[in-house]
Amino acid sequence: MSMIRDLRAVVRPSRPALRKDGGAYDTTRDPGTPSAVVDCAVYRDGARVDTGKPLTPHEAMRQVRRDGGFVWIGLHEPTEAEFAGIAGEFGLHPLAVEDAVQAHQRPKLERYDDSLFTVFKTIHYVEHDQLTANSEVVETGEVMCFTGRDFFITVRHGGQGSLRALRHRLQDDPELLARGPSAVLHAIADHVVDGYVAVADAVQDDIDEVETEVFTPGRRGGVSRGVDSARIYQLKREVLEFKRAVSPLLRPMQLLSERPMRLIDPDIQKYFRDVADHLARVQEQVIGFDELLNSILQANLAQASVAQNEDMRKITAWAAIIAVPTMVTGVYGMNFDNMPELHWKYGYPLVLTFTVTVCLTIHRTLKRNGWL
After folding, report:
1. For residue range 220-241, what is the model confidence (pLDDT) as tens digits?
2. Cβ neighbour number for residue 110 with a 10 Å cutoff
3. Which residues are registered as beta bridge partners of 108?
4. Contact 64, 70 (CB under 8 A)
5. What angle do CA 128, 134, 136 make, to 5 degrees?
6. Angle between helices 164-171 and 181-215 (to 10 degrees)
């Protein structure tokens, strides 16, 4: 703990952030423009410093450099103008700043001279009464994290993935929060991966429901009539979106748990191993979901084909039965004079009896062979 306090006491001058073209960001902001800052606080010795009024990022950082501790700033969908002043104050790398503002990034971990930039994809399960071809199963958001020696900045995109409750939980654990920004990074990683686990369980229920419907025997012939393939395909697309959030994050979590980094407390680094293990299990689940849905889709298409063949066999069987009376009545409708038994009084009932007998014989034969 003494080493951590010594590190907090070091004052690091800020480095101005530059654009890709080398120009500086404009740090001025129109006073009428709404701020994207959700919360800004200074933490010292694991406790939130009560200032009695909301702090601006500049004021918070000034306190940290004077008295020690670290600042945690949370933002939600900031514009370039809103983020420019913060980027300049904390010396954030322009490439990371551009990614944080534009969003739609894949999960990753990037190391710069004096900060780490981490991107997480948050996943939220969308509740639905019944899975349809247009059902939204998972909803994604993003959390970008800038981890420095004396600051931690989160940039959140999307309506889901609020970190307010997580911040309160960390504030209730001063011993952990005293570890500095790396403890916050671990808490967010653990929070995101726990969300993956919950969503994976919910998606498993949807897949089980579809699988049950596909392999439930139909009412006729013991053959399933299949389900709407669009429903299975939609679920497969949602699982693919889930997979894009989970798979790229595994390597960054392994790096955080295995490779020594000066911005990550060694005691906190051990806990990243647990996060990486949970993430690996979720990744295996999601890959299994994808493969299982492929099999379900193929089985559904095969059953639909079998059902169509069954229908065609029935149509063919009935056509064969109907062909007999059609042929007989067609012959007697030609109105020739010299027709068999045309003027015999028993001719009409005899022809009807013959037609019905042949039709019943064909029907019984086809039914015994499984065509009807």
Report:
1. 444 455 567 788 888 888 899 9
2. 14
3. 119
4. yes
5. 50
6. 130
Q: By the 8 A CB rule, do 219 and 235 touch?
A: no
Output DSSP code: residue 173.
-
Q: Which of 110, 176, 122, 121 is nearest to 146 (CA)?
A: 110
Q: Which residue has the tokens 């010299």?
A: 338
206: left (phi over 0), alpha (psi -120 to 50) or beta: alpha
Distance of alpha carbon 303 from alpha carbon 305, whole angstroms: 5
Q: 330, 295 in Cβ contact below 8 A?
A: no
Measuring CA to CA, how many Å separate 205 from each of 105, 123, 140, 285?
29, 16, 19, 13
* Beta carbons of 118 and 252 less than 8 angstroms apart: yes
Q: Is the CB of residue 206 less than 8 Å from the CB of residue 137?
A: yes
| Helix (H/G/I), strand (E/B), else coil: 237 | helix
**139 bridge partner residues:** 124
| Direct distance between the N- and C-terminal alpha carbons of the chain, in angstroms, rounded to an integer | 82
Segment holding 81, helix H or strand E: helix 80-90
- Cα 37 to the center of its chain, rounded Å: 27
Say if CB 96 and CB 146 are below 8 A apart.
yes
Give the bridge partners for 18, in sequence order. 24
In what side-by-side order are the strands of the sheet with 116-125? Answer: 47-48, 37-44, 70-76, 151-157, 138-147, 116-125, 108-111
Query: Is the overall model pTM greater than 0.85, yes or no?
Result: no
Question: Encoding tokens for residue 28?
Answer: 């001025």
Predicted confidence (pLDDT) per residue in 321-368, tens digit:
787 777 777 766 666 555 666 666 666 677 778 778 877 887 787 777
> In degrees rounded to 5, what are phi and psi of residue 181?
-55, -30
The three-class DSSP label of residue 160 is: coil
| Contact criterion met (CB below 8 Å) for 285 and 200 | yes
Question: Cα separations (Å) of 269 from 44, 199, 220, 256?
Answer: 21, 26, 60, 6
